[in-house]
Amino acid sequence: MRRLQRVRRADIEMIKEDLFSFAFIKKSPFYGSYRGMRYRVGKEEDQLAACVYPEPYSYENTPEEEKQVRTFAFSPEGYEQAKDWLVEMYEMYGKGSD
Known about the structure:
By secondary structure, the protein is an alpha+beta fold. 34% of the residues lie in helices and 28% in strands. A four-stranded antiparallel β-sheet has the order 1-2-3-4. Strand 2 (37-44) and strand 3 form a beta hairpin.
């Protein structure tokens, strides 16, 4: 288990601003990474699925057991909740400190 580290406010804002708009997510999943944490946000059936996984592999090449997924309502509110969850995941793994 990794040692938890203090997360800087700028790191949290970077994750939230890095995501595309909800309108983009309606059409195509968004893939991103920030300081070692990779993530995917996209529509799966009638829900919004957010997934985090470790570097160095792509989403498709990361084993399923290494992915953490959470689903949300497919709505602007669910999109905001998904972004908040990504921040929580980032904080949990202490990616914010240099």
